[in-house]
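Troubleshooting log. The previous run stalled partway through. Resubmitting the same two chains, unchanged.
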Amino acid sequence: AQTVTQSQPEMSVQEAETVTLSCTYDTSESDYYLFWYKQPPSRQMILVIRQEAYKQQNATENRFSVNFQKAAKSFSLKISDSQLGDAAMYFCAYRPTYNTDKLIFGTGTRLQVFP
Amino acid sequence: DGGITQSPKYLFRKEGQNVTLSCEQNLNHDAMYWYRQDPGQGLRLIYYSQIVNDFQKGDIAEGYSVSREKKESFPLTVTSAQKNPTAFYLCASSGPGVNQPQHFGDGTRLSIL
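Second attempt completed without errors. Output:
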């Protein structure tokens, strides 16, 4: 069975600094999608970034980038120039290509940003 | 603006009572989903629907029921058979194609009186 593991329940970073959130997953599939979602105190889940497994190039969205290591089954999120508004729960999620309904989430990492 | 609307934001249930959570989307998405979120457990899939009048059980469907009579609506009923209903419930939808992410509503917090 596919699983997603986020081993850091909490992380903290100073404003303007860089922080990396870890995510590992387990699958026997070769083609799949990976996502990072942000859940601020308002509780809405917001898509931050996504990565297609067949693309070797790491995805980037403004201050957010990923380090996708397919062989190691690792998908970390790097937040550069951290802002107070980045404080939230961050969830890593996996979805196999063959089943678009199956979105498997990790348990989340709570990120605190200090001024 | 297109989006997903969940109501109510907060809901209270008495023992033995069924309650229904509303989810409406105007994104013209075919697929809709219901998730339950508990502290420290991430999101777990309750039910999902790919087309009108059809839906499938997710990983934790026991004690829940759904309907999909319209494309834009996917209500979730928490029945009295669900013994631990206190949780945060999130509705999501997605468009066609394997690369389409799921978009989420703002959620409903259900508590037991």
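Takeaways: Chain A has a mean pLDDT of 94. The longest strand of chain A covers residues 88-96.
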